[in-house]
Amino acid sequence: MNLLKEFCLNESCSYLLGKEQIMHYKIIHDCSAQYCLELIERGYRRFGKMYFRPICEGCNECQSIKIDVNNFVFSKSKRRTLRKAEHIKTYIRPPSITQDHLKLFDKYHQFMNKKKGWEYHKTSSQHYYNSFVAGDNGFGYEVLYFDENKLIGVDLIDILEDGISSIYFYYDPDYAHLALGKLSLLNQIRYARKVSKRWIYLGYYVEECPSLSYKADYTPYLTLQGRPDIHQEYSWH
Q1: Cross-strand pairs, 90
Q2: I need a labelling partner for 202 at 20 to 30 A (CA). Which of 38, 151, 169, 184 fits?
């Protein structure tokens, strides 16, 4: 593990309008799966070689959340989501970048710009590589979703010792009727059971953020208590 850079940035909040956030960043070269897990257990997220978490004073809206895989129950509606997409094929492999990836990523973010007001900037191959391909170090993967030969979804995950860390999912808006976002998470849970992983690390739950509040529907779950430093013990309840 080689810590290349560590810094904090004060910027506009990614989750709540009109607020600012302070993000703590670590840029790590050749991070091990074990050290990645130690960071994830303390509330960090990974994009490429960059690990980050919010450290805003006086605000605890961002709650790190993980789903209890063993005790998760597939409700009727969740089983229905799985049945509707039985014809969709999935393949898991190390993360990659192709023109199909970039076109789908761009299409998804244009759609979210119109639907939810997300900021839209056309991505470059270098930006995509830095965010989703670099830094996989043998534990990062992508799950590709295909309708016949057409790429319709990409789920980026880390497979760690005791769980799966969900990084990012994007999909073809033309297939919104299949609830691909829900499908990807349900498939993560099914895969975690298959390979005997206990947790799905789902990033941040923010009650007032529509893009993140859905996570409370996936029970039972635990939330991280406080903001433990890398050398401190952590506790989830």
Answers
A1: 145
A2: 151
